Structure prediction request, 165 residues.
Amino acid sequence: MQSEIKDKAEIEFLDIQENEEYKNLVNLVLNKCFEKEIKNLNIYISITLTNSENIRKYNKTYRNIDKKTDVLSFPMFEKEELEQIINDEKAQIKDVLGDIVISIEQVEEQAKEYGHSFKREFAYMLVHGFYHLMGYDHIKDEDKQQMRKKEEEMLNLLKINRDII
Prediction:
């Protein structure tokens, strides 16, 4: 259980082995997300990388859903509030954008299930969680289309596509 802040992420490994490749990918992806969407705000994301058992507990505790999942996001701002802060050139905020919890076991399973690399699935989970923290959702079809478009654009910017092995 180690925590480290590098660039725009505070990364914690909860009941899984610390992994330099995971850290590097987290920072690569989130730095690009921040560069495109948030600019120069002094803000970061808390990332917890864990196993299926722990994410199931989080899911039950915070969403009252007793099953494992791949990623959970806990935003600290409402979408409109965040947009206002981002557009305020004088904003002097130093805060956490929110928390993202990812099950590495689920990422591995889904990469196999969808037939693409672990790197691609992990990057997608990070981008997906990031856009939830930005106030995007996928409950309504129109919102889902908007969120998916942003996710795909970000993964394309990172050159992390479905065919990356």
Observations:
- The mean pLDDT is 91.
- Residues 110 and 121 are 7 Å apart (CA to CA).
- The radius of gyration is 15 Å.
- The longest strand covers residues 94-103.
